[in-house]
Amino acid sequence: MTTASSTSDIPDVPRPLTTAALDLLERCEAELVAAMRADDPADRYVHAHLSALRAGAALVAVRGRPAGPRRSSPRSVWEMLPRLDDSLQEWADLFAATAATRSAVEAGRSGAVDAAAADALLAAAERFHRVVESMLGLSAVHPLAG
Question: From the CA atom positions of the chain, what is the Rg in Å?
């Protein structure tokens, strides 16, 4: 006798998107657009990082917080992502490493980033957004307004 399994038991089947996840994806796209339009590299960097953060949070909203002992539970999106899917480790490492710079920029530290660093982070955030959309079973049918 076979029993039906739920989609949550099958990793390749997209889970239903929640309102929270859709809101986070919308905010992710808005941050990407703001980053693309930002003339100041510091602003571009902050918006790009926030975009990636919201994309990661959308994935966590759909897949759920990874379980673990209370003391060792992940505390940030960047800690949670690799626990949800090993393939996200490099993304998590990249954006965790850039979080301190984003904080420095937000705190008003001038010269924390240059145009090249801001452009590189924006490009990474755009790629990560597409990865998250793919993992959630979405496909980009429209380019982001630039």
Answer: 17
Structure confidence by residue, pLDDT tens digits, 76-123? 899 999 999 999 999 999 999 999 999 999 998 988 899 999 999 999
pTM attached to this predicted model: 0.81
**Both structure tokens of 136:** 């959630």
C-alpha to C-alpha distance for 43 and 134, rounded to whole angstroms:
27
**Distance separating alpha carbons of residues 99 and 114, to the nearest angstrom:** 15
Average pLDDT on 52-66 reads: 91
The Cα-based distances of 126 to 30, 31, 92, 95, 102 in angstroms read 12, 10, 14, 12, 17
Burial environment of residue 5 by CB neighbours within 10 A (0 to 12, 13 to 18, 19 or more): exposed
Cβ–Cβ under 8 Å, residues 1 and 116: no
Pick the closest to residue 28 from 101, 100, 133, 108 (CA basis). Answer: 133
